[in-house]
Amino acid sequence: MKVAIIGTGYVGLVSGACFAEMGVNVTCVDINKERIESLKDGIIPIYEPGLKNIVDRNYKAQRLHFTTDLPSILNDMQIVFIAVGTPSDDTGNADLSYVFNVANTIADHIEKPLLIVTKSTVPVGTSFQIRDIVKKRLAERGLSDLSFDVASNPEFLKEGAAVDDFMSPDRVVVGVESENAKELMTKLYRPFLLNNFRVIFMDILSSEMTKYASNAMLATRISFMNDVANLCELVGADVNMVRRGMGSDTRIGKSFLYPGCGYGGSCFPKDIRAIIKVAENVGYEMRVLKAVETVNNKQKNVLFRKFSDFFNGDIAGKTVAVWGLSFKPETDDMRDAPSLTLIKSVLDAGANIRAYDPAAMQEAKKLLNDTVYYATDIYDAANNADVLIVPTEWKEFRLPNWEVLKKIMRTHLVVDGRNIYSGEELSSYGFEYRGIGQK
Ligand SMILES: NC(=O)c1ccc[n+]([C@@H]2O[C@H](COP(=O)([O-])OP(=O)(O)OC[C@H]3O[C@@H](n4cnc5c(N)ncnc54)[C@H](O)[C@@H]3O)[C@@H](O)[C@H]2O)c1
């Protein structure tokens, strides 16, 4: 089977490498020449655990290829996946220009039957728009009889665990409108789900909606728990206890009940905005999701507020150690990271930042330039600091040497945005501790 994946970002590169690992002949395509040349040289442009090994192995075995030239390989493929970005535009709608660029290139060069699959997260109806673009152009080219199919196959992988998620998915959602598309997708995904085939086939519109609804549900759980955490602080309850008590109810479940400093990343913020817009465009208001967004925007200020409150707002000139910059651990992705909101507020207030992240320093530099000091490790970041703030819970932050930190920090305040420390333990070392949703 020959498959092309358009877009070699977090989703495209992982999907391409994992399909190749299962024996599929995959060509990954990107318009970014530098990225494609790096990939040919064995340099992986993103931080994703386990990805380099499978890219190297499959590139050497010639099951994985890289090119910038989609037209030259298009008619050798049975399936083409569109996995390019769909960021928010200025109005909050999904910007589909990258997706439609790819659709236009396909439309201009397709000469053989092909299955075109949308893997990018897109508003409901986008796959049909892609179908219409190709149909129209084929008619203009005098090729109206050429058969092609479209399908929707939204991706549910998590950055930081993307390879494992792709290799052993909970389920694969596929929207189809023809038997041919269903057969091809069944063949492609069977190796991943040999023991328990969990491909859920449905119509294309429902498949596109499933992705938005899933992200919306997860974001709702996060904002709900942040609201509960804020109330816990006011009434003297401990959200860590509340979370355990709630999560042991099988109807609720344990996952996604962790309060923190707001959700970020390349998906939740833009997808929540986009589904609100999808609804608006058909005259419906997503009231719950609007509240989810409002709560999240407010929660992104919680770390700064706790720091500022401790010093009664007198924070100009203070030094802030920030541990963790990426929007979550095990990724270098800085898009919409809560750390960025914190850093902006700190800098606006005239305080200084000493930042450290195990993987995202390069990406952070692109956004923050020389406005912050980039530390070599956690202790360098904490040197002479008036507060240690943790927006991202990397594993290497979990058991620091508090005695060393006590010596090197100027003021002994810890603001824990992910509730990874024990307030009791920290106070035994002489630190003031501020977690989320705790007394
Ligand atoms: N990142 C995630 O965790 C995740 C998870 C599930 C779904 N998604 C969705 O998958 C899609 C891709 O996300 P991502 O994070 O991988 O994006 P990304 O920004 O990391 O990568 C997109 C890539 O597409 C390339 N590109 C843009 N236009 C192109 C074109 N015309 N031809 C070829 N390449 C082109 C870009 O150069 C870039 O390398 C988005 O719709 C996103 O919402 C992302």
Description of the structure:
- The termini are far apart.
- The protein is elongated.
- It is about 45% helix and about 15% strand.
- The chain folds into 3 domains: about 1-200, Rossmann fold (3-Layer(aba) Sandwich); about 210-300, NAD(P)-binding Rossmann-like Domain (Rossmann fold, 3-Layer(aba) Sandwich), CATH 3.40.50; about 300-435, Rossmann fold (3-Layer(aba) Sandwich).
- With about 450 residues, the chain is an alpha/beta fold.
- The longest helix is centred in the middle third of the chain and has 32 residues, at about 205-235.
- It has helices at about 10-20, 35-40, 50-60, 70-75, 95-110, 125-140, 160-165, 180-190, 205-235, 240-245, 270-280, 285-300, 300-310, 340-350, 360-370, 380, 400-410, 425-430, and strands at about 1-5, 25-30, 65, 80, 115-120, 150, 170-175, 200, 320-325, 350-355, 375, 385-390, 415, 430-435.
- The mean pLDDT is about 95.
- Nicotinamide-adenine-dinucleotide (NAD) binds near residues 9 and 157.
